[in-house]
Amino acid sequence: MMKEIFLHSADVQLTKPLATSWLAPSNIAFIKYWGKKEVQLPVNASLSMTLQNALTTTSLQAVPADKRSVSFFFEGSERPDFLSKIETFFQRISNYIPWINNAAFTIKSSNSFPHSAGIASSASAMAALALALADADAQLTGQPLDDTFYRKASFLARLASGSAARSVYGGYAAWGSHAHLSSSSDEYAVAINEAVHPRFKQMHDDILLINKQPKAISSSAGHQLMQQHPFLQGRISQANKNFERLCYAMTQGDLDVFAEIVENEAFTLHALMMSSEKSFSLLHPNTLLAIHEIRAFRKQTGIPLCFTLDAGPNVHLIYPEMYYDKVKPFVTESLTRLCTGETILYDNIGKGPRKIEKEI
Ligand code: PMV
Q1: DSSP H helical segments within the chain, as ranges?
Q2: pLDDT digit string, tens, across residues 222-242
């Protein structure tokens, strides 16, 4: 599907106030998106699991105005420091939702997770905002909240933050064109739940909060460093192979191959950071201690749990529901002590975003 289908006539105008609220989850990538081309297109296809508990709720009000203006509130306080990011996003989407140029917006947002947790991700925030805007647009054009609506929301979310494109769907989502997945696109994410083996339907993500410090380097800076990265071509071909093998393992219910690829992707992400021209590392000594414990436990018990890492030191422990009773005591006894404030956020595979009636 071409992005042109997301364009609509400039005749659609906001003539009366509109309001909507959406709740969108974060996601954790198993095949990592790291490196992009203009505008917000990935250098490789990525695949993620949408979470259940790490959520952003966003209420949006729009009233007709001569020109665009935005007020943004986060957890009750006005935050002008977020406006430049929102403005860049609005400029990128103004061809697709032209009436935003003649509207005054009030946007209120809050997260279900503590902001100092160090897991603050743009995925849930930007997915919630994109869904709210797509919904306001659908109210004006009379479009139903069908598959095309979610595809457009994913397309818009991508223009704010790549990983947000995947948070528009529950379960598993893929973003980025890949020969193995005919529905895939660089422009938007697609849900990939149909062929997934029942073993992958109930998954845990125990997020070990190793360190809550803000990131030393932003994801945007990291993506940019990939443009000149000496391993760029190798990374693209590795990601393409990993994507195809992971999809196959997930249709076959092969937890061992799944663990092997997910951990390879986590280490690759951080290896790319360490080996970029301006080298950096977001790991903490306890990240490696936790990984050591996880691998030792897997070797000793044969339980196919695995870890992944986002762009930060926190460790995501991934395992199917069927092993919960055996994994729980291991987490309590061996991993909690490695976490700051002994904090672990217990999350799971989630059902995806939803529209909510109550304004926040
Ligand atoms: O969406 P961004 O620009 O914040 O980049 C996210 C990159 C990773 O979280 C590290 C990987 C991914 O695919 O989510």
Answers
A1: 83-93, 122-141, 147-160, 219-225, 232-252, 255-274, 285-301, 324-330
A2: 999 999 999 999 999 999 999
